[in-house]
Amino acid sequence: MTPLVSFLTPAYNAAPYLAETIRSTLAQTWPRIEMIVVNDGSRDETSTVARSLRDPRVKVIDQENRGQSASENVAFHASQGDYIVHLDADDLISPNKVETQVRRLQESEPGCIAFGPWGRFYDKPENARFNPEPFWRDIDPIDFHVDMWQRHSMIQGACYLIPRQVIDRVGPWDESLSLINDFDFFPRVLLQAPKLLFCPEALLYYRSGLPGALSGSKSPAAWDSAFRAIGSGTQRLLTAENSLRTQKACSRSFEEFVYASYPAVPDLRRRAWERVRELGGPFFQPQMGPKMKAVSRIVGWKLAKRFQSLTRRLIKGA
Question: Which listed site, 30, 69, 195, 256, has its alpha carbon 20 to 30 Å from 60?
């Protein structure tokens, strides 16, 4: 029988974008798909929009607000697919994404995971910018994490097509995590695979710049989530291979946490810096944009960050 592919889509206040995401999913050339939309206590018309397309392949679940991780777990338990895609409620995919990836996995050894390129867009998907990375290739999972983390780069979660049995084996999303919860989940999944298979035609269009996005949350609880997720993800990699290259990759993640969280959460920054020292670091300079680099050359990155934080508060309060 043709394998079923399940799209898992937590949705919170996603009404302006959700219909486009659903249509993108239903336009797949692969003949057997289902989409599980979990309306996570939205205060807008998310539930109405999700049901308005009236397609039997789309199942909508309404629940009280429990967060993205819990919504991912609810969607997974409601799904039936042989393969899983974790698709955000505002992102889009090329029509051939699933077909390209399923066929690649069917030709490979069991347990492999497929992934594809992603491009960021702010207005229209046709304006998405795809910036190729060295790890966009068929690659060993440890090499993948080393290359990605040392470059402080990322792969968006919907890029992957994951065999269901892999997720069954590693367990659910950690529902205590919010900010960068994927840093805990995906290393658990990907490091189980014998190989990651790159499918250059399987495109993801990653919508950015939305107000209220989880990735923009900077509360103490969010920083605590990020710190714990980094600790979990890096430990997974070190358990798979404890070497200088994996230590450097893990140190980079903690170094960037110290920089990104400054001047907030001093206790977490201290603990992150201790972890950097334990891993032999620091090894890297903080990643920053051209303007911040220019200011940092004059006053140092800490003062530059304080100035940036003050400016943002003033703009927000205006």
Answer: 30
Could you tell me the end-to-end alpha-carbon distance of the chain, in angstroms, rounded to an integer? 59
DSSP annotation of 256 reads H
Under a CB-based contact definition with an 8 Å cutoff, are residues 21 and 90 in contact? Answer: yes
What whole-number distance in Å separates Cα of residue 278 and Cα of residue 269?
Answer: 14
Q: Is residue 286 a contact partner of residue 301, using CB atoms and an 8 Å limit?
A: yes
Tell me which amino acid residue 106 is. Q
* DSSP tag of 285: P
Sequence-ordered alpha helix ranges (H) in the chain: 15-26, 46-52, 68-78, 97-106, 141-150, 164-170, 182-190, 220-240, 244-261, 266-278, 290-299, 301-317
Q: Is 36 helix (H, G, I), strand (E, B) or coil?
A: strand
CATH architecture of the region 5-214:
Alpha-Beta Complex (3.90)
- HSE-CB for 262 with a 13 A CA cutoff: 19
Question: Quick check: helix, strand or coil at residue 3?
Answer: coil
> For the chain, how many residues are written?
318
> Rounded to the nearest 10 degrees, what angle do helices 220-240 and 244-261 cross at?
180
Whole-prediction pTM:
0.91
**29-42: pLDDT as tens digits:** 999 999 999 999 99
| Parallel, antiparallel or unpaired: strands 92-93 and 204-207 | antiparallel
State the pairing for strand pair 162-163/83-86. Answer: antiparallel
| Domain map (residue ranges) of the chain | 5-214, 216-291, 292-318
Q: What pLDDT, in 10s, does the model give residues 225-283?
A: 999 999 999 999 999 999 999 999 999 999 999 999 999 999 999 999 999 999 999 99
pLDDT value for 210: 77
Per residue in 159-201, pLDDT tens?
999 999 999 999 999 999 999 999 999 999 999 999 999 999 9
Can you read off the two tokens belonging to residue 253?
Answer: 């993640």
Angle at 36 between CA 198 and CA 172, to 5 degrees: 70
